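WARN retry 2 of 3 for item q-0093 after timeout on previous attempt; input resubmitted unchanged.
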Amino acid sequence: MIIIGRTALIVFAHQERTSFNFAMKEAAQAALEKKDWTVLVSDLYEMKFNAVLSRDDITGEPKEPNHFKYGAETLLAWKEGHLAKDIEEEQKKVEKADLVIFQFPLHWFGFPTIMKGWLERVFSSGFAYGAKSMFSEGPFKVNCPH
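OK item q-0093 returned
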């Protein structure tokens, strides 16, 4: 059964084009496209994705410039449309995706730093989670009958 109109996002974090990880990304992309999926790719090294959380993640002045609190400031920036352009672009990809694939090598039993930074910056408070609506709203909404 082919479901028309599905979109996948592959978030890829490996700098070497001859790596097994790159081959896995290419195989996943080809298999999905063969099934008529639209495939978006965020190649973090190719994009030179900034993995560092900072005041630069919001545009304009912070609400509390003398005591910058990253979580609170990015929540307000998300609500007001003042997140950095690269974050907003990646969040739009996540919103379009029916499936998100993370392809990366293990570094010390975890994500590479660039992938961790992508997760921290893109899955920001308000966009990806909140105290009351973690799975009832937003990109992680559970679409099963209750």
